[in-house]
Amino acid sequence: MNRHYWIIACLLVISFFGCIENNPNLTDTGEDILEEKQVYIDAIDLGHNDTIYIPIYSDIYVESRHERYYLTATLSVRNTSLTDSMFVRQIDYYDTNGNLVREYLDKILLLKPMQSIEYVIEKDDKIGGAGANFIVTWSARHDDLIPVFQGVMISTQGQQGLSFVTEGVSISRRGGGMGAKVKVGVEE
């Protein structure tokens, strides 16, 4: 009889921990990694501004338009400079229909030289669809800073795995857009 209680207790514990949502942007102690990296910057004139479009596939079609394969998608923003910081002002997630689904920043995000940040759209998060995308608006002191913006999609089912990468493209350099200079204020 005790063995049955022990098995039931183990199953309940496994079920409980299986239902807890694992947020990839939280530390082991539950602190938001992104909050730690968001800082206000000093009032400076940022000479270079850009807006980037990054395609994200929450799912893709397989065999027909009626069957979908769901994916975990990661937005990766990488400052490639060895010496200069970049300032991320906006990270927004849009669905297939062009509807704004999430706004990720309420402060300016400072990415130090060679620093990266990731935002994860989990496999079970089906709101974005096959035509989802991120819009990232960023600034730097100089126009020679060339960060990398990528979408990384991956999924495994059984013994089958699928992964691919998309590259971000500038949408503000097509004639207007976010090319104006901006002043950013700081609070300490």
Q: Could you please describe the fold and organization of this structure?
A:
By secondary structure, the protein is mainly beta. The chain has one domain (about 30-185): Sandwich (Immunoglobulin-like), CATH 2.60.40. Helices cover about 10% and strands about 45% of the residues. The chain has helices at about 1-20, 35, and strands spanning about 45, 50-55, 60, 65-70, 70-80, 85-95, 100-105, 110, 115-120, 135-140, 150-155, 160-165, 170, 180-185. Strands 2, 6, 7, 8, 10 and 13 form a 6-stranded antiparallel beta sheet that branches. A hairpin with a 1-residue loop joins β3 (about 60) and β4. The longest helix has 18 residues, at about 1-20. It is globular and about 65 Å long. The termini are far apart.
Helix vs. strand class = mainly beta
Query: Roughly what is the average pLDDT, rounded to an integer?
Result: 79
Please tell me how large the radius of gyration is.
Answer: 20 Å
In helices, the fraction of residues equals 10-25%
Shape: globular
Number of helices: 2
Question: What's the count of strands?
Answer: 14
CATH class: Mainly Beta
Order of helices and strands: HHEEEEEEEEEEEEEE
Which CATH-level-2 architecture?
A: Sandwich
Strand content: 35-45%
Largest sheet: 6 strands, antiparallel
Rounded to the nearest angstrom, the distance between the terminal CA atoms is 62 Å
Contiguous uncertain segments of 5+ residues:
175-188
The CATH topology name reads Immunoglobulin-like
Total domain units: 1
